[in-house]
Amino acid sequence: MFFAKQLHVNVAQRLRELNINIIEEESLIGKGKDYSHIGSGDVVILPAFGATVGELKEFRDKGVQMVDTTCPWVAKVGARVMGRTGFS
Fold first, then answer.
1. Cα 27 to Cα 30: distance, rounded to the nearest angstrom
2. Which residues pair with 67 in a beta bridge?
3. How far apart, in whole angstroms, are the C-alpha atoms of residue 66 and residue 51?
4. What is the gyration radius of the CA atoms in the chain, in angstroms?
5. Rounded distance, CA 76 to CA 23, Å?
6. What is the domain-level CATH number for residue 48?
7. pLDDT value at residue 82
8. Which domain holds residue 53?
9. By C-alpha distance, which of 54, 45, 63 is closest to 82?
10. Number of domains composing the chain
11. What pLDDT, on the 0 to 100 scale, is given for residue 1?
C-alpha cells in the first residue's frame, strides 16, 4: 500500500528549484512582506490560507496575475467576515 511508507517532500525547496520565489515575512517584528520586486505581468500564487485585503489591492494595482489557491472553507469564512465589516 502506498501510504504504508512515509513520504517527505520539501515543497519550498522544489518550488525554488523551479525558479519560483517564496515571499516570507521580513522578520518577527512585524515588517510584513516585501512585494516591491513584483511588477506588472508577474504571477502571484495566493496561499491556501488566503491573502489580506491590502495584499489583494496591491497586486491588483500592480497589474499582476493572481492564482488563487485559497481553501474554499477559508474563503467562506473570509467572505462572512468581510460582509460583516463592510469590506468587499
1. 6
2. 45
3. 11
4. 16
5. 25
6. 3.40.50
7. 67
8. 2-85
9. 54
10. 1
11. 46
- H/E element, 58: helix 53-62
Which residue ranges of the chain lie beneath pLDDT 70? 1-9, 27-30, 82-88
Which helix (H) or strand (E) covers residue 46, if one does? strand 43-46
CA dist 66 → 3, 21, 31, 71, 77 (Å): 33, 14, 23, 15, 20
Model pLDDT, residue 4: 54
Q: How far is CA 11 from the centre of its chain?
A: 14
- Return d(Cα 73, Cα 24) in angstroms, integer: 23
Tell me, what DSSP letter sits at residue 4?
G
CA distance 67 to 41: 12
C-alpha angle with apex 16: 11 to 18, nearest 5 degrees?
100
Say how many C-beta atoms besides its own lie within 10 A of residue 59's C-beta.
18
